Amino acid sequence: MNLDIKRIGNNYKIFFTGYQLIFSGIRVKGKDIQSNLKIVDTDTEKTLFISTVELMDIDARWKLSRHLEILEKNVPWQELLTLAFTKVINELLTHDEPAQLIETEPHEHYFIKPIVADPYTLIFAPGGSGKSYLALLIAMAVQNGLDFGFFEMQTAKMNVLYLDWETSLEDISRRFTLLKNGLGQDLESPFYRNLALPLNYEFDKVLDDIVKYNIKLLIIDSVVPAIGGNINHADVVGEFFSMLKQFYNTNGTRTLLLTHISKQSKKEEGDKSPIGSVYFENYPRLVWELKSVSLRDKLQIDLIPYKFNISKPSNLSFLFKFRYNGVDVLTSENIEETDEVKEFIKQVVEQENEIKIKDLITKVKQQFGLNENSIRRKIEELKRAGTLSSAGYGVVSVANNLNENDEPPF
């Protein structure tokens, strides 16, 4: 029996007349070797089997062959599986010679400065906060090789694949059209897949896309359904990042991950953290916390660096202004003039003349729903800009900005 084997990253495809066996997500645990296995009838494109298998378990292999004999007769499944499993095991146990370190020029490890690091970046925030809009804007920038005035693109256009477990093709298409109209340019769409199964079951399909279309940025929206298991377990999360590493090693593909905040963070005011295992903070080189405020036809997004193994980036701000057939996007450089939260703060202080900061925070919370830390940050920004001033401990007032030609207020 002649079997052809092809290796892509740490995944293996075995070809037999009329059939394809795809081994992916391989992990070694002691003396056990587990793998996701997908068996496809290439003539009908029918999937005969998809599940996790133990490559070293002879009894499990025999049971699988009996199961396949019911589905497809006249195929020597026992012999086929034995040879296929043996080929994969031999490939895994064959090691290359160890490498030696060489001198390498230092670099900043940014893929898109200052927002996406190399190789993994994570953005976390509550649901409905605008993560997908921001991720799509980044995808459009990379796909078209444009900075939009927001990013420092390091190279020309590169292909992007948006993996979506959260919304639908229709929703993303609508958002793409709105952003495209707002930016006023004829822009190329990134590649897109809407998925239902966890990534380990879609791995071969995604890896094929990455190689076929030379994908350089992968966006995962979002982590929890992409993992599909216990996101607090180190083994599950480790397997997930192992797949991302294989994308990177195979084609230099970076990953931007979107995820939610932890349940504990939802219960408590103050510091937030990504949902799940601490590895979501450790594996990415850059982690952003996203905070947003919805203001009628506007959405303001603030990115605050949460963890970074690179030069610390500054806070970033984006303002999405929605109109009937488009979305205009402003960034940190020109967003100040449209910051309605700050305008509201100034109006309240002007009306009260002097006000306790805690009372001011309460009023802003009632109006916009911001958390206390965000409100305090905006108050401090107004004080640094000379718009507000301290009027005693815990009290602010309108700043008394006199120039040399003004008369004194008495």
**CATH class category name of the largest domain:** Alpha Beta
Strand content: 25-35%
SS-derived structural category:
alpha+beta
Helix fraction by DSSP (H/I, runs of at least 4): 25-40%
The counted number of beta strands is 20
Detail the poorly predicted runs: 402-410
Mean pLDDT across every amino acid position: 86
Spatial separation of the terminal alpha carbons: 101 Å
Please give the count of helices. 12
Query: Within the largest sheet, what's the order of strands?
Result: 11-10-12-13-8-14-15-16-17
CATH homologous superfamily title of the largest domain: P-loop containing nucleotide triphosphate hydrolases
CATH topology of the largest domain: Rossmann fold
CATH architecture of the largest domain: 3-Layer(aba) Sandwich
Shape: elongated
Q: Radius of gyration, Cα only, in angstroms?
A: 27 Å
Strand count, sense and closure of the main sheet? Answer: 9 strands, mixed
Domain count: the total is 3
Summarize the structure.
The protein is α+β, with helices and mostly antiparallel strands.
Structural features:
20 strands, Rossmann fold, 12 helices, 410 residues, 3 domains, alpha+beta, five-stranded antiparallel sheet, disordered C terminus, nine-stranded mixed sheet
Description:
The chain starts with a strand and ends in a 12-residue tail after the last strand. 34% of the residues are buried. Helix 1 (58-71) crosses helix 2, helix 3 packs across helix 4 (169-183) and helix 10 crosses helix 12. It has 12 helices and 20 strands. The strands form 4 sheets. Strands 11-10-12-13-8-14-15-16-17 form a 9-stranded mixed β-sheet, sandwiched between helices. A 5-stranded antiparallel β-sheet has the order 1-2-3-4-5, sandwiched between helices. The chain folds into 3 domains: 4-93, no CATH class; 110-335, P-loop containing nucleotide triphosphate hydrolases (Rossmann fold, 3-Layer(aba) Sandwich), CATH 3.40.50; 339-398, Winged helix-like DNA-binding domain superfamily/Winged helix DNA-binding domain (Arc Repressor Mutant, subunit A, Orthogonal Bundle), CATH 1.10.10. It has 410 residues and is an alpha+beta fold. Mean pLDDT is 86; it is low at 402-410.
